[in-house]
Design a protein that fits this description.
globular, about 120 residues, 7-stranded mixed beta sheet, about 0% helix, mainly beta, 4-stranded antiparallel beta sheet
Length: about 120
């Protein structure tokens, strides 16, 4: 079965950096677009960034120029490098893949940006 396991969240000061990782299993990783989403309690989950199998990327306007999504197909892992973090980036971050018309999610990793 499809499994996505996120790691790398934590507490960081404004202006700091974090790198999130998502290890995937149960899929032919190289053919799927992978995405990162985030959710604040009481709000809808929102797309942060995605990366296609060919390496094309897309970002939410709020993170452009600060976040970078990348993938390592050999390790079946997708990354989210987050720089210049702001308090409004505080959220639970989820890894996503859509397979056979179904969305799969990881368990989420908490990112808190606070001084």
């Amino acid at each position: 079965q499809v499994q996505l396991v996120e790691s790398g969240g934590g507490l960081v000061q404004p202006g700091g950096s974090l790198r999130l990782s998502c290890a995937a299993s149960g899929i032919t990783f190289t053919i799927y677009t992978m995405g990162w989403y985030r959710q604040v309690s009481g709000k809808q989950r929102e797309l942060v960034a995605w990366i296609s199998w060919a390496g094309y990327t897309n970002y939410a306007d709020s993170v452009k120029g600060r976040f970078t999504i990348s993938r390592d197909n050999a390790k079946k892992t997708v990354y989210l490098q987050m720089n210049s973090l702001k308090p409004e980036d505080t959220a639970v971050y989820y890894c996503n893949v859509a397979k056979d018309a179904r969305n799969y999610w990881g368990q989420g990793t908490q990112v808190t940006v606070s001084s």
